[in-house]
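ok trying again, last paste got cut off:
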Amino acid sequence: MASQEQFHSDPRPIGVFDSGLGGLTVVRELTEIMPAEDVVYLGDSARVPYGIKSLQTVRQFALEDMSFLLGFDPKMIVVACNSATAAAYEQLVAASPVDVVDVIRPGAAAAVAATDGVIGVIGTEATVKSGAYQREIARLAPGREVMAQACPLLVPIVEEGRDQDDPIVLNVLCDYLRAMQRRRCGAMILGCTHYPLLAGAIGKLMGPDVKLVSSAAAAAREARRRLQAAGLDNPSGRGTLRCYVTDNAERFAVLGERFGGRKIDHVQFVGTDELESRRIGAQ
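nice, full thing came through this time. structure:
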């Protein structure tokens, strides 16, 4: 039996990318449920945030990010950025030689399973404007009411390292969540990987009856399911985390442990010019 498990294990890393630090919340969830898997992470911190840029620009960035990670021979790509998923998921799948897991589809499925009532979605401007969560929820549960709210200030607030009890954080959240508080959503999707770091404050404002759905956690569970189904998981690995960033590696190393909940074994700068030179399939 042991030899059969060894035969099916795959030591290649999982590649994960995001526009900055937020995707480390996905890495945190991956580490929680698959602690032996090695991860190579790209944070495009020089071009953060993706959520206020056009879909065409985000699509170009996402293809460049994935192309960089493919250079490490990963067994799977996890798109930890909701904005990149909304803008480029189909193009990424078409261009990738390995399986691609996104955050939107697993997050939508988890929300539909969590409530029969109204589903709230909070995310970046690009994610909300794309309608990606709304379309996926409509596909899974036709007729379900969805309320979506863009929250453009939350990413910079989180990246500044502000605490959940900070009055600025609470005031901004109160403004964004007011309509959903009145409507009494049954579940709320945290449709940006930065938002789990604000889950405590969001939960207090929305109340105990609203189930918060982390797209980061849902994506990690989907990644594990697919790896195990394909016999590509690696339960005997070392569980290392190598990070590449396009700006300020020192700051990333300091803040990254807060987002990822673990020590980062390696942080290295990579220029956006190198990402652009690796671009694949951009239109």
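cool. DSSP finds 13 helices and ten strands in the chain. Strands lie at 14-18, 39-43, 76-79, 99-101, 119-123, 146-150, 187-191, 211-214, 241-245, 266-269.
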